[in-house]
């Protein structure tokens, strides 16, 4: 019960999805009520997460950073000392990216259940946003002819 494993297939490429996960502007466009700030995307750097422009922020400590492949971090909710261990793994086959999202170390059943619902919504938003980007790129290429 203490591990959440979700996955989604997206018609895109790893670079586009990685960009949404690690670029402040793209992240905010994709996840309209969330924003991030990170001065240095590297192991042991801090990511700040803001909800609805709230001054309180959740923080994460980056543990793995493999561009276009894997991002993992210890996620600390505001006023919590218990980290949720989060990892995104991307793999691409025939222009379909498989996004695996895993989390563990939830403090209780309520947090576990809330995370499942929130992450399913987040993955669906990621799919919709990145597939729209890919469709726009395809339309732009067709417009060149």
UniProtKB/TrEMBL annotation:
SUPFAM superfamilies: Bet v1-like
InterPro entries: START-like_dom_sf
Protein name as catalogued: SRPBCC domain-containing protein
């Amino acid at each position: 019960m203490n591990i959440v494993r979700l996955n989604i297939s997206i018609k895109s490429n790893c670079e586009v999805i990685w960009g949404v996960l690690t670029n402040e502007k793209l992240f905010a466009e994709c996840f309209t009520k969330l924003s991030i700030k990170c001065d240095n995307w590297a192991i042991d750097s801090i990511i700040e997460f803001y909800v609805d422009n709230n001054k309180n922020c959740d923080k994460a400590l980056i543990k793995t950073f493999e561009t276009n492949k894997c991002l993992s971090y210890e996620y600390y909710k505001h006023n919590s000392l218990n980290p949720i261990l989060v990892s995104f793994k991307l793999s691409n086959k025939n222009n379909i990216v498989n996004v695996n999202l895993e989390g563990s170390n939830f403090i209780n059943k309520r947090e576990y259940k809330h995370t499942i619902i929130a992450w399913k919504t987040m993955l669906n938003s990621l799919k919709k946003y990145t597939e729209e980007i890919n469709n726009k790129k395809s339309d732009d290429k067709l417009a060149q002819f």
